[in-house]
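Predict structure. Chain length: 101.
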Amino acid sequence: MSAQPVHDGDGGPPPLPRTQNAVAAALPPADRMEFYREMGEADETELLGVLRRWWLRARLYADPLPEDVRADIEAGTAPGRPAGAALRQAAADRETSSGER
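Prediction complete.
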């Protein structure tokens, strides 16, 4: 019996481990070389950020988004705001609401 891909139930792409080998394998060849170059040039404080950024890009390639939407996301011009900003705002809101009680 062979292994079957595991999907998360919502019809999306299977999970992608956040490892250098998994990310490299999920990227198109031209991007894979750029990924390896950035990983090789990153110091120990930058490695996780480089891996995370390329992992997100690999997930975008696996997701069937229209090309114009994908381009907007990669360029940082898509509508919405970064998850980090939303999380910081939620934490600030929690602190404010717990401090007023």
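Summary: The chain has one domain: 20-99.
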